Amino acid sequence: MAEPGIWQQRLVEKRFAGGTLSPLDLILFLLSTLLIWLFLRKAHHATRGPLSAIPGPRLCAWTDLPQGYWKITGRDHEIMTNLHEKYGPVVRIGPKHLSYIGTAEIWADIYGERVGYAKCLPKDKMLYDLIEDCFGWKDSLVTAPDELVIRKLVVSSFSPRMNNHFEPRFKGWTKKMVERLVPKAERAEIMDLSKAFQCLSVDLQTDMILSVDAESLKTLDYPPTKIVVNGSLQGAALAHALRLFSPTIGRAVQKTIVNIPHLRRLLDNFASTLSKRIDARLANPPPTGDVLTEVLRKTDLSPVPISKEQFYSTAKILTVAGPEAMTAAMNTIGYHLFRAPSTFQTLVSQIRTRFPTQEDLSLKALSEMDLLTAVIKEGHRLYPLPPGILPRCTPKEGAWVQGVWIPPHTVLGVHQWATYRSESNFHDANGYHPERWMGDPKFKNDRLDCVQVFSAGARRCPAELFSWCVIRLVFASLLLNFDIELADEACDWPQQKSYFIWRTRPLMCRIRPAEKKAVVA
Ligand code: HEM
């Protein structure tokens, strides 16, 4: 076949020679010129552009199709880890997409606050708008620009003072979880402990934020929120992949998916239940106060008004996103702890010695237990949420990362799974070793500060302290009251797929009353 340029030249020669250039010929000529120009531009960007020096699969420099495909497979975390092993700490995974193995400095460069231009790199709209579109959470804290006042209000609602204030409430809910598990333990049942984590998180957080009992622990089954989230994950990954390729097609597919009657009904019920709960809460302020009390109090003092829509969407996202993250965290912490008999036994004996009864558990005392802290950190490291990248976008001035100038409108981020499974950061990176967090000399070269499961900078998780308090209480309560072993059915737990967040597998465990039983007063 003749090259396109030669073919064009012939067309022009032939037509002009005969003096008969028809409108169709002219259109063909212009179209082919345009295509050639687009091709050359793409080729230049792929092979000579500013990102061309960064290694990666060749096809990725030309198109987003490979990374879109990886997202749909649910195996993005493993594929990316292999790519980093092959190409190094920075990989070009799309024409304008970069993935990094994190270090403390890289986290700060990408997610930290910057001086001189934007306060921090903005979130990539391709992903975050999708979350907003799917659930209709317009301008919530997650998608609002960073300087917005709403973030300050939410952060102050999760302050250390508020955590102390809420301690009795946290303890009340963990005790309720224990009470619900006692009959199962007495029958030595095999059960999905993940359901208990999810129910506790939903009930505790709905109570803490809206002073409403969501009643999930009553059934010990997944609440409707989980069904909606699980049902939407793969569809959202498909829409995201298509948006990378063509935002218009991606949006159209996403609209079709969310309008599938069954899913639409679930989403609508879910949205209206949440709205009704917020309305009811606003109509009847609770005497004891909750997160919303704090947000409302600060809103009154704020010089910048918060729109009703933003207020509602933020309250909704707090009651939904929180439990998902907490459940995923508790699943990985539990799974890894229960399959490490010696760590498990040591922690059990530390807890049962220090706290004779459930009532003796206290946040302060638990925060002093180094092994408990190490077990939580190691669980987070092995299955972080989200496992992939929290994508950020460089502004029109571009940005400097590790002394390298990254051009404008490049999407980049630290890949958590690849970072935490990298042997360059951790000795035996795939192994479970809580002792690496306790100064064991075997792990003296570990780069512990590259683990930032709550992210870093101005948009880091506002509920980190809260999450620590609740997770410590939950595990202390479980180990104090029950003997727990993983059931055979849990053997495929690690084969989880990730669609931005984990699609969690059941955590099947056999629970029995603790041999030296603690008193649930
Ligand atoms: C172990 C549990 C948790 C983990 C690992 C976690 C992790 C994270 C991460 C990595 C981010 C940054 C997301 C991004 O940049 O896109 C984030 C943001 C956020 N998290 Fe958490 N989170 C947890 C628990 C919670 C809980 C319990 C709540 C609410 C009650 C919560 C509310 C939020 C909100 C509202 C944001 C958005 C903040 C912003 O954009 O300014 N998280 N979280």
Walk me through this protein's architecture.
This protein has 521 residues and is α+β, with helices and mostly antiparallel strands. The protein has a single domain, classed as Cytochrome p450, CATH 1.10.630. Helices cover 57% and strands 8% of the residues. The protein contains 21 helices and eleven strands. The strands form four sheets. A four-stranded mixed sheet has the order 1-2-7-4, with helices on both faces. A three-stranded antiparallel sheet has the order 3-11-8. It has a two-stranded antiparallel sheet with strand order 5-6. A hairpin with a 2-residue loop joins β5 and β6. The chain is globular, with a radius of gyration of 26 Å. It starts with a helix and ends in an 8-residue tail after the last strand. The model has no long low-confidence stretch (mean pLDDT 87). It binds protoporphyrin IX containing FE. Its cofactor is heme. Keywords: Heme, Iron, Membrane, Metal-binding, Monooxygenase, Oxidoreductase, Transmembrane, Transmembrane helix. It comes from Bimuria novae-zelandiae CBS 107.79. GO terms for molecular function: heme binding; iron ion binding; monooxygenase activity; oxidoreductase activity, acting on paired donors, with incorporation or reduction of molecular oxygen. This is Cytochrome P450.
